[in-house]
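Hi L.,

You mentioned the student needs an example of a multi-chain input paired with its predicted structure. This one should do, with 226 residues in total across all chains.
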Amino acid sequence: RKEVEQDPGPFNVPEGATVAFNCTYSNSASQSFFWYRQDCRKEPKLLMSVYSSGNEDGRFTAQLNRASQYISLLIRDSKLSDSATYLCVVSSSSNTGKLIFGQGTTLQVKP
Amino acid sequence: EPEVTQTPSHQVTQMGQEVILRCVPISNHLYFYWYRQILGQKVEFLVSFYNNEISEKSEIFDDQFSVERPDGSNFTLKIRSTKLEDSAMYFCASSRDSSFNQPQHFGDGTRLSIL
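Structure written out for the whole complex:
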């Protein structure tokens, strides 16, 4: 089983649509969870941390289910500028800061 | 907003040559990292560095790789004898600490092309 697994997509949605991405991770001892965004050939940029209680930042909502080792990201009212690859990222259990990245899910928002 | 800076943005090197990639982490950050991303693949961890020591390294980070913080501001990655398969984007990152939910901030990367 991959350490962090995502559906690579691509997800093609119209502007204004709601889209959800899922991610599963294999190490139950992982403590920190993030969604990063990566534009083509650019660096990963932090979108949001993911907390056990779930958290929201504007149009973005992240959920964590530790029992199922499952993380989700919901984007409401998609904008053209949301087009990017969304990376599910999980910390290792080693407490050295090592991050483990999923392969990413590509989103294309069309007018 | 403070950011991580990396130089050069693009490095082209002959196979077998040494290359040094440079990074200036965010000034109050204490933990430093290198990751790489081969074209079309996922981002992979190389090494984490704290208190002038490597705290963890991956299998990729073999004897050809080394890291250094020579002067309190720069953080460098050296590849001694480059191979074709070292061609990738190399990202430096830093964080205040490695504790729970402390995010890492990434530089905009160095594209390394080995000929």
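You could point out the following to them. DSSP finds no helices and eleven strands in chain A. The first strand of chain A starts at residue 4 and ends at 6.

Best wishes,
N.
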